[in-house]
């Protein structure tokens, strides 16, 4: 059985490890915004081409924080059995959503040869595609491919970057 001290150590160690890997692999111009002026009055902002990985990292960080809160409920002695069961079910749901997101990203990569970011929240699926081509036919094909992964009707949005 893991005691509280070991759990805290593992939690902090894994957090430090994740942040270290994130820092080391982060490009220097990750959040750099380039401004191009057009017609002296319109300014167009471009985010670096690594926006898919930025979205993925932000999602992973928020998901990690949520999972840590749920793990604290699970390990808290004062939590009721119902609270622990709910926390466990939510943890399981988060893991299932993450694996489904990865599965869909891999399917889009293999079927359409496109890099993508997928986020699932309840019945909504947000797909961000890293492509210069913006066609309705491609978006429709991606929506149909994503819907095949689910038994129930999902609200799927596709955004090109």
Feature tags:
Helix Hairpins; two-stranded antiparallel ribbon; flat; 161 residues; alpha+beta
CATH class term: Mainly Alpha
Tell me the domain tally.
1
| SS-based class | alpha+beta
- Terminal Cα separation, in Å? 47 Å
- Could you tell me the CATH topology label: Helix Hairpins
Query: Helix and strand succession?
Result: HEEHHEEHE
Overall CATH architecture: Orthogonal Bundle
Low confidence ranges: 31-49
- Form type: flat
What does the oligomeric state look like here?
single chain
- What portion of residues is helical? 55-70%
What summary fits the major beta sheet? 3 strands, mixed
- The helix count comes to 4
Number of strands: 5
Q: CATH-wise, what's the superfamily? A: Stage III sporulation protein AH-like
Spatial arrangement of strands, main beta sheet? 3-4-5
- Bin the strand percentage: 15-25%
What does this structure look like?
This protein is α+β, with helices and mostly antiparallel strands. The chain has one domain (4-160): Stage III sporulation protein AH-like (Helix Hairpins). It is built from 4 helices and 5 strands; from the N terminus they run H-E-E-H-H-E-E-H-E. It has helices at residues 4-25, 51-75, 81-112, 136-147, and strands at 33-38, 42-47, 115-121, 124-130, 155-160. It has a 3-stranded mixed sheet, with helices on both faces. Strands 1-2 form a two-stranded antiparallel ribbon. Helix 4 (136-147) links the parallel strand 4 and strand 5. Helix 2 packs antiparallel against helix 3 (81-112). The longest helix is centred in the middle third of the chain and has 32 residues, at 81-112. The radius of gyration is 20 Å and the shape is flat. The N and C termini lie far apart (47 Å). The model is unreliable at 31-49 (pLDDT under 50).
């Amino acid at each position: 059985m893991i005691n509280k001290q070991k759990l805290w150590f593992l939690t902090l160690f894994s957090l430090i490890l994740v942040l270290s890997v994130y820092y080391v692999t982060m490009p220097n111009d990750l959040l750099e915004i380039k401004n191009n002026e057009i017609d002296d009055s319109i300014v167009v902002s471009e985010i670096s081409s690594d926006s898919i990985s930025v979205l993925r990292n932000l999602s992973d960080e928020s998901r990690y924080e949520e999972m840590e809160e749920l793990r604290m409920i699970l390990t808290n002695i004062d939590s009721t059995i119902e609270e622990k069961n709910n926390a466990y079910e939510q943890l399981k749901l988060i893991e299932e959503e993450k694996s489904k997101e990865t599965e869909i990203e891999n399917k889009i990569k293999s079927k359409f040869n496109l890099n993508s970011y997928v986020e699932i929240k309840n019945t909504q699926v947000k797909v961000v595609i890293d492509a210069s081509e913006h066609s309705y036919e491609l978006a429709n094909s991606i929506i149909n491919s994503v819907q095949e992964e689910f038994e129930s009707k999902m609200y799927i949005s596709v955004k090109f970057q």
